[in-house]
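Hi V.,

Quick status before I head out on leave. The structure for the redesign project is tokenized and pasted below; the design run finished overnight.
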């Protein structure tokens, strides 16, 4: 049987629930078919507390899905609550947008080109420096 229920997320002492369509045999927070909304019981300030895709809930209930008691209560609450405004700017801009500057071109004028450092002076191998060989039995070198 297909059910529409809450799947818990969030951190310890900070619950967050996804409203999901799932097979009733799956675990509470396990695999689901579709996410149709969320419920944030600890939302404060401007945070949205509840969002439900009513069209998808209707679709699944018409196809035989059962709502859990809590989800049924939340769906009714979402129907009665006014729709949240779409996120957008707080106020419109005053006039046209300012022209964009070419940041990379301006930065290239500021950055000075530094010449590459000279190659490192590599010491010649120990044998070429005229020191004793690693094996002392060969000292002094045979002439």
């Amino acid at each position: 049987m297909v059910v529409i229920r809450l799947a818990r997320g969030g951190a310890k002492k900070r619950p967050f629930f996804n409203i999901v369509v799932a097979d009733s045999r799956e675990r509470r927070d396990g695999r689901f078919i579709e996410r149709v909304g969320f419920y944030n019981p600890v939302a404060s300030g401007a945070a949205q507390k509840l969002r439900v895709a009513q069209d998808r809930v209707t679709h699944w209930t018409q196809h035989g899905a059962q709502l859990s008691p809590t989800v049924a209560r939340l769906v009714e609450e979402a129907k009665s609550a006014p729709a949240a405004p779409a996120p957008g700017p707080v106020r419109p801009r005053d006039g046209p947008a300012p022209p964009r500057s070419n940041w990379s071109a301006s930065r290239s004028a500021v950055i000075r080109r530094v010449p590459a450092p000279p190659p490192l002076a590599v010491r010649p191998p120990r044998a070429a420096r005229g020191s004793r060989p690693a094996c002392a039995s060969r000292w002094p070198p045979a002439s």
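Above is the designed sequence. Residues 102 and 108 are 10 Å apart (CA to CA).

G. will cover questions while I'm gone.

Best,
W.
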